[in-house]
Design brief:
About 35% of the residues lie in helices and about 20% in strands. It has 8 helices and 9 strands.
């Protein structure tokens, strides 16, 4: 497993942005497209802002990038809590993307469980029955969750569905998420997790006994194409 520990967060963000650019070029050269699934949260936000700067904007063939999401809170796309809204404000509205290549993980007037099936079909329409994303960007919560794969939830045991929606009682809201099987299928996975608050969970994920019910990030296979960017505060 490739773990890179940074002493400065700006260096981490720059490396993550460079990784996005490099993988986009390789994928577009090979398949004439770059199909990604992005996460919300503070660390991706900084990466997206960097990608939208003049320095990076011209390095990606944005009209050949297809945007899916790793997970989403079941809220309106205009809601402050929406991962889509954050990505749109920091990246999608700042670069020349093809609007037909954007697949928000939410729709008005639909039950989340029904939309999970629709979203799976949308992925399949682009990626076929193998469902291999070119790149998936993940984060990790202080509790070791990734995407909306939270400790103790039934979604952790999902083996067939690519997308699942469920009611998360502690947050009193529905979540919709890619599942471990489709995430693990990805060609490239980058996990970004840093800061003192992540230290315990990160140590358990990397060095502890295999217990994904407690530390769901352990479900993500540490194989070729898997990278982990962190900092001294989290890694210890």
């Amino acid at each position: 497993m490739n773990i890179t520990v940074f002493d400065d967060l700006e260096k981490l963000y720059t490396k993550a942005a460079d990784t996005f650019v490099d993988l986009s070029k390789k994928s577009i050269q090979k398949n004439d497209r770059f199909v990604v699934a992005l996460s919300g949260g503070s660390s991706p936000k900084a990466i997206f802002k960097l990608l939208s700067t003049p320095e990076y904007k011209g390095k990606v063939e944005w009209n050949k990038v297809y945007f899916f999401w790793v997970d989403e809170r079941w809220v309106s796309l205009h809601d402050d809590k929406s991962n889509f809204r954050m990505t749109d404000e920091t990246l999608l509205s700042q670069v020349p993307v093809d609007k037909n290549h954007i697949f928000p993980m939410y729709a008005d007037g639909v039950a989340p469980e029904d939309y999970a099936k629709t979203y799976e079909k949308q992925i399949m329409n682009i990626l076929g029955k193998d469902g291999i994303f070119d790149f998936i960007l993940l984060g990790m919560g202080d509790d070791g969750h990734t995407a909306s794969l939270f400790p103790g939830e039934a979604v952790l045991d999902e083996k067939e569905k690519w997308v699942s929606a469920y009611y998360l009682k502690p947050q009193e809201m529905f979540r919709i998420t890619l599942t471990a099987p489709v995430i693990n299928n990805a060609e490239n996975i980058l996990v970004v997790a840093f800061g003192e608050s992540k230290k315990h969970a990160l140590n358990e994920v990397l060095n502890g006994e295999y217990n994904p019910a407690l530390y769901p990030l352990q479900l993500i296979e540490k194989k070729a194409g898997f990278q982990f960017y962190t900092d001294q505060k989290a890694k210890g």
